[in-house]
From TrEMBL:
PANTHER family xrefs: LYSOZYME RRRD-RELATED, PTHR38107
The protein's name in its UniProt record: Lysozyme
Native source organism of the sequence: Pseudovibrio ascidiaceicola
Keywords from the UniProt entry: Antimicrobial, Bacteriolytic enzyme, Glycosidase, Hydrolase
Hydrolase recorded as keyword: yes
Catalytic activity as recorded in UniProt: Hydrolysis of (1->4)-beta-linkages between N-acetylmuramic acid and N-acetyl-D-glucosamine residues in a peptidoglycan and between N-acetyl-D-glucosamine residues in chitodextrins
Pfam family, one: Phage_lysozyme
Enzyme class (EC, first level): hydrolase
Length: 156
Protein backbone atom coordinates (compact mmCIF):
# COMPACT_ATOMS: atom_id res chain seq x y z
CA UNK A 1 0.00 0.00 0.00
CA UNK A 2 1.33 3.42 -0.91
CA UNK A 3 2.02 5.99 1.78
CA UNK A 4 -0.68 8.62 2.25
CA UNK A 5 1.16 10.75 4.80
CA UNK A 6 1.91 14.39 4.10
CA UNK A 7 5.23 16.09 3.60
CA UNK A 8 3.55 19.48 3.82
CA UNK A 9 4.54 20.49 7.34
CA UNK A 10 6.59 23.33 8.82
CA UNK A 11 8.70 25.27 6.34
CA UNK A 12 7.63 22.95 3.51
CA UNK A 13 3.97 23.95 3.79
CA UNK A 14 5.07 27.60 4.00
CA UNK A 15 7.09 27.16 0.79
CA UNK A 16 4.24 25.56 -1.18
CA UNK A 17 1.67 28.07 0.13
CA UNK A 18 3.97 30.95 -0.89
CA UNK A 19 4.57 29.44 -4.34
CA UNK A 20 0.95 28.63 -5.10
CA UNK A 21 -0.41 31.77 -3.46
CA UNK A 22 1.89 34.00 -5.49
CA UNK A 23 0.85 32.41 -8.78
CA UNK A 24 -2.84 32.01 -8.07
CA UNK A 25 -3.35 35.38 -6.42
CA UNK A 26 -6.05 36.05 -3.84
CA UNK A 27 -9.58 37.03 -4.86
CA UNK A 28 -12.22 36.98 -2.14
CA UNK A 29 -15.17 37.28 -4.53
CA UNK A 30 -15.95 34.55 -7.05
CA UNK A 31 -14.87 35.28 -10.63
CA UNK A 32 -14.61 33.39 -13.91
CA UNK A 33 -11.12 32.00 -14.53
CA UNK A 34 -9.42 31.96 -17.93
CA UNK A 35 -11.62 29.09 -19.15
CA UNK A 36 -14.81 30.49 -17.60
CA UNK A 37 -14.98 28.35 -14.47
CA UNK A 38 -16.23 30.03 -11.25
CA UNK A 39 -13.18 30.47 -9.03
CA UNK A 40 -12.42 32.03 -5.64
CA UNK A 41 -9.56 32.61 -3.22
CA UNK A 42 -6.29 31.10 -4.53
CA UNK A 43 -7.76 29.42 -7.59
CA UNK A 44 -10.30 27.20 -5.81
CA UNK A 45 -13.03 25.90 -8.13
CA UNK A 46 -14.60 23.02 -6.20
CA UNK A 47 -18.21 23.90 -5.37
CA UNK A 48 -17.74 27.60 -6.23
CA UNK A 49 -20.67 29.60 -7.56
CA UNK A 50 -20.69 33.14 -8.87
CA UNK A 51 -21.61 35.51 -6.03
CA UNK A 52 -19.63 33.52 -3.43
CA UNK A 53 -17.37 35.49 -1.11
CA UNK A 54 -14.73 34.53 1.46
CA UNK A 55 -12.39 36.22 3.91
CA UNK A 56 -8.60 35.99 3.58
CA UNK A 57 -8.54 33.67 6.62
CA UNK A 58 -11.13 31.39 4.98
CA UNK A 59 -9.11 31.43 1.75
CA UNK A 60 -5.88 30.57 3.60
CA UNK A 61 -7.57 27.62 5.32
CA UNK A 62 -9.12 26.51 2.03
CA UNK A 63 -5.73 26.65 0.29
CA UNK A 64 -3.95 24.49 2.87
CA UNK A 65 -6.76 21.90 2.86
CA UNK A 66 -6.82 21.86 -0.93
CA UNK A 67 -3.03 21.55 -1.19
CA UNK A 68 -3.08 18.57 1.18
CA UNK A 69 -5.95 16.98 -0.80
CA UNK A 70 -4.02 17.44 -4.05
CA UNK A 71 -0.84 16.16 -2.41
CA UNK A 72 -2.68 13.02 -1.21
CA UNK A 73 -3.97 12.38 -4.74
CA UNK A 74 -0.50 12.97 -6.21
CA UNK A 75 1.10 10.56 -3.71
CA UNK A 76 -1.32 7.78 -4.68
CA UNK A 77 0.11 7.60 -8.19
CA UNK A 78 3.77 7.82 -7.16
CA UNK A 79 5.84 4.74 -6.33
CA UNK A 80 8.14 6.36 -3.75
CA UNK A 81 6.94 9.89 -3.00
CA UNK A 82 9.15 10.23 0.08
CA UNK A 83 12.30 9.67 -2.02
CA UNK A 84 11.60 12.70 -4.22
CA UNK A 85 13.82 15.65 -3.19
CA UNK A 86 11.69 18.06 -1.18
CA UNK A 87 11.98 21.10 -3.49
CA UNK A 88 11.13 18.89 -6.47
CA UNK A 89 8.22 17.49 -4.47
CA UNK A 90 6.92 20.99 -3.66
CA UNK A 91 7.07 21.96 -7.35
CA UNK A 92 4.92 18.92 -8.17
CA UNK A 93 2.39 19.71 -5.45
CA UNK A 94 2.06 23.16 -7.03
CA UNK A 95 1.67 21.62 -10.49
CA UNK A 96 -0.90 19.10 -9.26
CA UNK A 97 -2.89 21.86 -7.54
CA UNK A 98 -2.99 23.76 -10.82
CA UNK A 99 -3.70 20.93 -13.29
CA UNK A 100 -5.58 18.45 -11.08
CA UNK A 101 -4.72 15.02 -9.72
CA UNK A 102 -6.03 13.13 -12.77
CA UNK A 103 -3.93 15.12 -15.22
CA UNK A 104 -0.86 14.75 -13.02
CA UNK A 105 -1.35 10.99 -12.62
CA UNK A 106 -1.64 10.53 -16.41
CA UNK A 107 1.41 12.70 -17.15
CA UNK A 108 4.87 11.98 -18.46
CA UNK A 109 6.14 13.98 -15.48
CA UNK A 110 4.63 11.39 -13.11
CA UNK A 111 6.13 8.54 -15.14
CA UNK A 112 9.55 10.16 -14.97
CA UNK A 113 9.25 10.76 -11.22
CA UNK A 114 8.41 7.09 -10.75
CA UNK A 115 11.51 6.20 -12.78
CA UNK A 116 13.69 8.42 -10.57
CA UNK A 117 14.38 10.84 -13.44
CA UNK A 118 13.96 14.05 -11.44
CA UNK A 119 15.35 16.39 -14.12
CA UNK A 120 13.26 14.75 -16.85
CA UNK A 121 10.16 15.06 -14.68
CA UNK A 122 10.89 18.75 -14.07
CA UNK A 123 11.17 19.32 -17.82
CA UNK A 124 7.95 17.41 -18.58
CA UNK A 125 6.06 19.55 -16.05
CA UNK A 126 6.78 22.65 -18.15
CA UNK A 127 4.56 21.25 -20.90
CA UNK A 128 1.42 22.18 -18.92
CA UNK A 129 1.23 25.72 -20.25
CA UNK A 130 -2.19 25.75 -21.94
CA UNK A 131 -5.69 26.62 -20.84
CA UNK A 132 -8.75 26.36 -23.04
CA UNK A 133 -6.56 24.89 -25.80
CA UNK A 134 -4.21 27.85 -26.07
CA UNK A 135 -0.78 28.66 -24.70
CA UNK A 136 -1.04 31.13 -21.81
CA UNK A 137 1.99 33.25 -20.93
CA UNK A 138 1.06 33.23 -17.22
CA UNK A 139 1.20 29.43 -17.24
CA UNK A 140 4.50 29.47 -19.14
CA UNK A 141 5.88 31.79 -16.44
CA UNK A 142 4.48 29.69 -13.60
CA UNK A 143 5.94 26.48 -15.06
CA UNK A 144 9.35 28.19 -15.35
CA UNK A 145 9.17 29.24 -11.69
CA UNK A 146 8.19 25.69 -10.68
CA UNK A 147 10.94 24.32 -12.94
CA UNK A 148 13.61 26.37 -11.16
CA UNK A 149 12.45 25.09 -7.76
CA UNK A 150 12.09 21.57 -9.15
CA UNK A 151 15.66 21.56 -10.45
CA UNK A 152 17.04 22.82 -7.11
CA UNK A 153 15.86 19.50 -5.69
CA UNK A 154 16.82 17.48 -8.76
CA UNK A 155 20.42 18.66 -8.60
CA UNK A 156 20.71 17.73 -4.94
Amino acid sequence: MKSTKTRLTGWVVALVVALVGAWEGLRTTAYHDIIGKPTICYGETKGVKMGDTATKAQCDTMLIKSLKRHEAGMRKCLNNPDKIPIRTYVAFVSLTYNIGVGNFCRSTARSRLNAGDWAGACKAATWFNRAGGRKVQGLVNRRQDEYKLCMQGAKG
